[in-house]
Design goal:
The chain is mostly helical and 245 residues long. The protein has 6 helices and no strands. Helix content is 60%, strand content 0%. Helix 1 (26-58) packs antiparallel against helix 6 (190-224), helix 2 crosses helix 4 (135-146) and helix 5 (162-181) packs antiparallel against helix 6. The longest helix is centred in the middle third of the chain and has 43 residues, at 68-110.
Protein backbone atom coordinates (compact mmCIF):
# COMPACT_ATOMS: atom_id res chain seq x y z
CA UNK A 1 0.00 0.00 0.00
CA UNK A 2 1.44 3.31 -1.00
CA UNK A 3 1.63 5.99 1.68
CA UNK A 4 0.13 9.35 0.96
CA UNK A 5 2.58 12.23 1.37
CA UNK A 6 1.26 15.76 1.29
CA UNK A 7 2.92 18.20 -1.04
CA UNK A 8 5.13 20.73 0.77
CA UNK A 9 3.13 23.51 -0.85
CA UNK A 10 -0.20 22.10 0.33
CA UNK A 11 -1.52 23.87 3.46
CA UNK A 12 -2.26 21.72 6.47
CA UNK A 13 -5.95 22.72 6.33
CA UNK A 14 -7.93 23.56 3.21
CA UNK A 15 -8.32 27.28 2.89
CA UNK A 16 -5.86 28.02 5.69
CA UNK A 17 -3.95 31.26 5.34
CA UNK A 18 -0.23 31.53 6.08
CA UNK A 19 0.57 33.23 9.39
CA UNK A 20 0.92 36.97 9.12
CA UNK A 21 3.92 38.71 10.65
CA UNK A 22 3.09 40.92 13.63
CA UNK A 23 2.76 44.63 13.11
CA UNK A 24 5.11 47.01 14.88
CA UNK A 25 3.29 49.47 17.17
CA UNK A 26 4.16 52.50 15.05
CA UNK A 27 1.09 54.50 16.04
CA UNK A 28 1.73 53.93 19.73
CA UNK A 29 5.34 55.00 19.23
CA UNK A 30 4.18 58.39 17.95
CA UNK A 31 1.82 58.74 20.91
CA UNK A 32 4.61 57.85 23.35
CA UNK A 33 6.99 60.40 21.83
CA UNK A 34 4.29 63.09 21.91
CA UNK A 35 3.40 62.38 25.54
CA UNK A 36 7.05 62.31 26.59
CA UNK A 37 7.40 65.72 24.99
CA UNK A 38 4.36 66.89 26.94
CA UNK A 39 5.88 65.56 30.16
CA UNK A 40 9.08 67.49 29.44
CA UNK A 41 7.10 70.69 28.85
CA UNK A 42 5.18 70.33 32.11
CA UNK A 43 8.47 69.67 33.89
CA UNK A 44 9.90 72.83 32.38
CA UNK A 45 6.92 74.81 33.67
CA UNK A 46 7.39 73.15 37.07
CA UNK A 47 11.04 74.24 37.17
CA UNK A 48 9.87 77.80 36.52
CA UNK A 49 7.34 77.51 39.39
CA UNK A 50 9.97 76.00 41.70
CA UNK A 51 12.40 78.82 41.07
CA UNK A 52 9.65 81.43 41.57
CA UNK A 53 9.00 79.97 45.00
CA UNK A 54 12.72 79.91 45.84
CA UNK A 55 13.27 83.48 44.67
CA UNK A 56 10.20 84.80 46.48
CA UNK A 57 11.01 83.35 49.87
CA UNK A 58 14.71 84.10 49.49
CA UNK A 59 14.39 87.70 48.40
CA UNK A 60 17.08 89.85 46.87
CA UNK A 61 18.57 90.63 50.27
CA UNK A 62 17.66 87.36 52.02
CA UNK A 63 14.82 89.02 53.93
CA UNK A 64 13.22 86.76 56.50
CA UNK A 65 9.69 88.09 55.90
CA UNK A 66 7.55 87.66 52.77
CA UNK A 67 4.16 89.22 52.13
CA UNK A 68 1.38 86.67 52.55
CA UNK A 69 -0.16 87.50 49.16
CA UNK A 70 3.19 86.95 47.40
CA UNK A 71 3.68 83.60 49.11
CA UNK A 72 0.11 82.54 48.25
CA UNK A 73 0.61 83.53 44.61
CA UNK A 74 3.78 81.49 44.09
CA UNK A 75 2.32 78.60 46.10
CA UNK A 76 -0.73 78.55 43.79
CA UNK A 77 1.56 78.52 40.75
CA UNK A 78 3.52 75.67 42.31
CA UNK A 79 0.28 73.72 42.90
CA UNK A 80 -0.91 74.21 39.31
CA UNK A 81 2.46 73.04 37.97
CA UNK A 82 2.37 69.95 40.19
CA UNK A 83 -1.17 69.09 39.05
CA UNK A 84 -0.47 69.26 35.32
CA UNK A 85 2.72 67.28 35.91
CA UNK A 86 0.76 64.47 37.53
CA UNK A 87 -1.85 64.41 34.74
CA UNK A 88 0.77 64.38 31.98
CA UNK A 89 2.90 61.77 33.75
CA UNK A 90 -0.02 59.38 34.34
CA UNK A 91 -1.19 59.65 30.72
CA UNK A 92 2.36 59.06 29.48
CA UNK A 93 2.89 56.13 31.85
CA UNK A 94 -0.26 54.34 30.65
CA UNK A 95 0.55 54.77 26.95
CA UNK A 96 4.24 53.93 27.47
CA UNK A 97 3.45 50.65 29.26
CA UNK A 98 0.95 49.69 26.53
CA UNK A 99 3.61 50.42 23.89
CA UNK A 100 6.18 48.48 25.92
CA UNK A 101 3.84 45.46 26.03
CA UNK A 102 2.99 45.67 22.32
CA UNK A 103 6.65 46.02 21.44
CA UNK A 104 7.50 42.99 23.59
CA UNK A 105 4.85 40.92 21.78
CA UNK A 106 6.09 42.12 18.40
CA UNK A 107 9.72 41.29 19.13
CA UNK A 108 8.78 38.03 20.83
CA UNK A 109 6.93 36.83 17.73
CA UNK A 110 10.07 37.37 15.65
CA UNK A 111 12.54 36.03 18.23
CA UNK A 112 10.62 33.64 20.47
CA UNK A 113 13.59 32.47 22.50
CA UNK A 114 15.05 35.91 23.25
CA UNK A 115 13.15 36.36 26.51
CA UNK A 116 13.16 34.70 29.89
CA UNK A 117 9.50 35.44 30.72
CA UNK A 118 6.21 35.81 28.90
CA UNK A 119 4.94 38.99 27.30
CA UNK A 120 2.67 39.73 30.25
CA UNK A 121 5.72 40.66 32.31
CA UNK A 122 6.16 43.71 30.07
CA UNK A 123 3.22 45.10 32.06
CA UNK A 124 3.51 43.25 35.37
CA UNK A 125 7.19 44.03 35.89
CA UNK A 126 6.38 47.73 36.43
CA UNK A 127 4.26 46.88 39.48
CA UNK A 128 6.52 44.40 41.28
CA UNK A 129 7.84 45.92 44.54
CA UNK A 130 11.63 46.37 44.37
CA UNK A 131 11.71 44.25 41.19
CA UNK A 132 10.38 47.25 39.26
CA UNK A 133 13.81 48.82 39.73
CA UNK A 134 15.37 46.36 37.28
CA UNK A 135 12.83 44.01 35.65
CA UNK A 136 11.53 46.44 32.97
CA UNK A 137 15.14 47.33 32.17
CA UNK A 138 15.97 43.67 31.61
CA UNK A 139 13.03 43.23 29.25
CA UNK A 140 14.04 46.37 27.34
CA UNK A 141 17.61 45.12 27.11
CA UNK A 142 16.40 41.76 25.75
CA UNK A 143 14.30 43.55 23.13
CA UNK A 144 17.38 45.52 22.12
CA UNK A 145 19.55 42.40 21.97
CA UNK A 146 16.98 40.55 19.86
CA UNK A 147 17.68 43.01 17.03
CA UNK A 148 21.28 41.80 16.83
CA UNK A 149 20.29 38.32 15.62
CA UNK A 150 20.61 39.36 11.98
CA UNK A 151 24.00 41.05 12.46
CA UNK A 152 26.20 37.95 12.46
CA UNK A 153 28.44 36.55 15.16
CA UNK A 154 30.92 39.42 15.49
CA UNK A 155 30.28 41.28 18.75
CA UNK A 156 32.00 44.38 17.38
CA UNK A 157 29.11 44.79 14.92
CA UNK A 158 26.42 44.83 17.56
CA UNK A 159 24.78 48.21 18.25
CA UNK A 160 25.66 49.36 21.74
CA UNK A 161 22.84 49.18 24.29
CA UNK A 162 23.86 52.46 25.93
CA UNK A 163 20.50 54.13 25.07
CA UNK A 164 18.74 51.48 27.19
CA UNK A 165 21.14 51.97 30.10
CA UNK A 166 21.02 55.76 29.88
CA UNK A 167 17.22 55.86 29.78
CA UNK A 168 16.83 53.51 32.72
CA UNK A 169 19.54 55.16 34.82
CA UNK A 170 17.97 58.59 34.39
CA UNK A 171 14.47 57.21 34.97
CA UNK A 172 15.46 55.65 38.29
CA UNK A 173 17.57 58.66 39.30
CA UNK A 174 14.75 61.13 38.60
CA UNK A 175 12.33 58.96 40.57
CA UNK A 176 14.65 58.87 43.57
CA UNK A 177 15.24 62.61 43.31
CA UNK A 178 11.49 63.18 43.28
CA UNK A 179 11.09 61.21 46.49
CA UNK A 180 13.91 63.19 48.10
CA UNK A 181 12.40 66.53 47.04
CA UNK A 182 8.91 65.70 48.40
CA UNK A 183 7.51 69.26 48.17
CA UNK A 184 7.26 71.72 51.04
CA UNK A 185 4.94 72.87 53.82
CA UNK A 186 3.79 76.46 53.33
CA UNK A 187 3.79 76.96 57.11
CA UNK A 188 7.44 75.89 57.38
CA UNK A 189 10.28 78.41 57.89
CA UNK A 190 11.14 80.34 54.75
CA UNK A 191 14.61 78.82 54.58
CA UNK A 192 13.11 75.31 54.56
CA UNK A 193 10.63 76.29 51.83
CA UNK A 194 13.44 77.66 49.68
CA UNK A 195 15.57 74.52 50.12
CA UNK A 196 12.61 72.27 49.26
CA UNK A 197 11.77 74.34 46.16
CA UNK A 198 15.37 74.13 44.93
CA UNK A 199 15.43 70.36 45.48
CA UNK A 200 12.20 70.06 43.52
CA UNK A 201 13.68 72.17 40.70
CA UNK A 202 16.61 69.74 40.45
CA UNK A 203 14.20 66.78 40.42
CA UNK A 204 12.06 68.35 37.69
CA UNK A 205 15.18 69.12 35.67
CA UNK A 206 16.21 65.46 35.88
CA UNK A 207 12.73 64.50 34.66
CA UNK A 208 13.28 66.59 31.53
CA UNK A 209 16.58 64.84 30.78
CA UNK A 210 15.02 61.43 31.51
CA UNK A 211 12.13 62.17 29.13
CA UNK A 212 14.60 63.10 26.38
CA UNK A 213 16.54 59.87 26.97
CA UNK A 214 13.29 57.89 26.83
CA UNK A 215 12.39 59.48 23.47
CA UNK A 216 15.78 58.51 22.05
CA UNK A 217 15.48 54.97 23.45
CA UNK A 218 12.02 54.22 22.00
CA UNK A 219 12.92 55.64 18.57
CA UNK A 220 16.22 53.73 18.40
CA UNK A 221 14.58 50.49 19.55
CA UNK A 222 11.91 50.73 16.89
CA UNK A 223 14.52 51.61 14.27
CA UNK A 224 16.54 48.50 15.15
CA UNK A 225 13.51 46.28 14.64
CA UNK A 226 12.72 47.87 11.29
CA UNK A 227 15.80 46.11 9.96
CA UNK A 228 15.18 43.11 7.66
CA UNK A 229 14.12 40.17 9.80
CA UNK A 230 13.92 36.43 9.13
CA UNK A 231 10.69 34.99 7.77
CA UNK A 232 7.98 35.06 10.40
CA UNK A 233 7.83 31.82 12.32
CA UNK A 234 11.40 30.86 11.41
CA UNK A 235 13.74 32.98 13.57
CA UNK A 236 17.46 32.89 13.02
CA UNK A 237 19.20 30.76 15.67
CA UNK A 238 21.12 32.66 18.30
CA UNK A 239 24.72 33.16 17.27
CA UNK A 240 27.59 32.19 19.62
CA UNK A 241 28.38 35.85 20.15
CA UNK A 242 24.83 36.84 21.15
CA UNK A 243 25.33 39.54 23.78
CA UNK A 244 24.37 38.68 27.32
CA UNK A 245 22.80 41.09 29.77
Amino acid sequence: MSEFVASPQQPAWPGALPPQPPRAPEGLLKAVVALLGLVALTDLFAVFADLRVANTVGGDENFSVVAAEDLDAVDSLYGVAALIQVVAYLACAVVFIIWFFRMRKYVGALAQDAFERGAGWAIGSWFVPIGALWMPFRIAHQMWNAATRTLGSEPARYPSAWPVRLWWSLFVLSGLAGRFASGYDIDAPLGDIRSAALRTAVSDGLDIVAAAAAVYFVIRLMALHRRPTPEFGHPTPVQPGYPAL
